[in-house]
Every structure is written in structure tokens, then in C-alpha cells.
Amino acid sequence: MAIRQKIKFRTPISPDVISTHTQKVSARKPVIDKLNFKLTEDRHDPKTKVLPEILEQHPWHWDPMKTDHNDASCFIGNWAKNFDWEGLSKWCIRKANEHGLPEKYWDYDESTGDFWHGTDIATNTPIREQALLMLKNNTFNKHNTQYFKIANKEFEHWEQPLRDLFPQFGEEKMGVSLFVQPPGSMHWSHVDTYTSFIRRTGDAKADYSRLRRYMIFPRDWDFGHFFHYGNHCMNQWRTGDLWDLKPGIYHGSANSGPTPKITIHWSGELKEGYGELKEEYGKMES
Ligand SMILES: [Fe+2]
Questions:
Q1: Which of 113, 143, 173 is the last residue of a domain?
Q2: What are phi and psi for residue 93, nearest 5 degrees?
């Protein structure tokens, strides 16, 4: 007992969390609800929810136990010196704090069958089946999928320099967006369908053979930051690491650490004459 007490007193306690004991500990009831569905006993195969044209144009192994894959080959190199990534990171966190309300989260409305990505309805978009797999009879919800999003004009003076980094996209056919993923939040695993891009450009049907997405981490990896790209789990990424998020590869991310995680994405249609990112830049410093 004496030892236990000693340990107890040596544990630092924040004054914010000292209990006032307004409620009897023994009277505590669960404060969460029972799941209103059964967890799957077998495996959900996400491949069956992906648009057939994406599966056809961008074949991928879809085997979670495959070890001889080359999913990590989508890493292109390090662009730490190409931009003021730390300046941008500080600016976007300040902007998120000023706003306070995460712009994006996923929400399934059981009463109507609609699902929403923030205030955008996503019911009849190409992500539909993948979203239903996660949101209907599953545990993703508006609480654990929140993130702050800054896109295009919202970048203010950062916008043009960010656009200039990727001349392979046509100016009107390109979007740049930054996500601040707060601790405790997840981007459920998916294959990109470029829904935001389609919504913005008004294209009725996307040409998945020409659409590309590139991603840069503007800050070093920190504890609890997860990103799986196919069968490759990214770890200890560095400021400026550039990834070619090739279409058709299943990916997702989560933040179980105490620090926000930031990613920036460029999405759009490749201009005529431009090839894959690796062909454009060759072997880069990594
Ligand atoms: Fe994605």
C-alpha cells in the first residue's frame, strides 16, 4: 500500500482534471450506446465496392497478405527544399484554429439513406458504395472522421506557388487541398474517385485514365500518424516527402497521436504530353 501511494503521488496531475466527485463512482453507467448492428464475422472485401472502370483501368493486387508487392514504389522523393512547408503548416493550423469547425466529416442519415461529406451530399457520387460500406452498419461517423480542409482560393497567397509545383496539370483541371487531421480522427480506407474534383469541374464523367493525385507531407512524421498505401504502411515520413497516389490502390489514414497530422494533395487531369511522375522527375533524392 505504501508503495502504491508513493507511486500515486509521484504521478503528475494536471489541476484541470482533479475530480470533484459529484457522482458516486459505483453509480457510473455506460455513457455510450450499444451498436445497432452486428460486426461482420467474416471479411468485408472492399474491392467489390469500387467502380468497375477504376478496377479495369488500374488493376491492383487487392491481397492484404501479399508481401512481394511494390506499393511503396509510389514514393517519388523529397521536396523539402522546394517550398516553405513549415511556414505553410503553421499558417494552416492557425487558420483551422480560427475557424474551429472542421469542414469535413462523414455522416450517414439513416432516415433518408443519404450520406454527407461535410455539407456536400455524396449519395449519388462515385464514392457511394465505398462510403456505404464504412458508414452504414459500421462504426465510422461524423465524430471520428472530422478534418479541416483548405482548398484552392482558401490558400490565399500560398495558392499560386503551390499550383506552380505541378505544371503537369492543366490550370483549370487541377485542385489543391490541404487536410489537417486532428488527433482521434480517421480517413477511412478507400480508392480515390476524385469526387471533389468532379464536383468542382462539373465533369459529368471522370476520365480515370488521365486523373492523378500527388501528395506531400509538409511536416515530419510524429507518433500515432498512420497512412497505409496499399500494403505499405508509411512510417517516419519527412517534411517534403512526395508520393504519387496512383489510382486504384486502396489507402487510408488515422491519427492516434496527440499532434495534428497534415497532408497536401494536388488532383487533376494530366496535360497532354505529360507522363507518370517518376518519368517526369526521374530518380530523386530520397
Ligand atoms: Fe484518398
A1: 143
A2: -70, -40
Total-model pTM: 0.89
Q: Using one digit for the tens of pLDDT, what is the confidence trace for 176-228?
A: 999 999 999 999 999 998 777 776 776 666 677 788 899 999 999 999 999 99
Residue 241 dihedral angles phi and psi, to the nearest 5° = -65, 130
Low-confidence ranges of the chain (pLDDT < 50): none
- How far is ligand 1, taken at its centre, from the CA of residue 192, in Å? 5
Gap between the Cα atoms of 148 and 238, Å rounded: 21
Distance from Cα 15 to the centre of ligand 1, integer Å: 41
Q: What's the 252 CA to ligand 1 centre distance in angstroms?
A: 7
99-112 b/e with 16+ CB inside 10 Å = b? eeebbbbbbbeeee
Dist. CA 86 → ligand 1 center (Å): 23
124 and 155 fall within a common domain: no
**Ligand 1 centroid distance, CA of 10 (Å):** 45
User: Ligand 1 (ion): which residues have CB within 5 A?
Assistant: 192
> Does residue 43 lie in a domain region?
no
What is the whole-number distance in angstroms between the Cα of residue 193 and the centre of ligand 1?
8
Cα gap 162→152, rounded to integer Å: 9
Provide the residue range defining the domain that includes 219.
72-102+146-285
Query: Ligand 1 centre and the CA of 61: distance in Å?
Result: 18
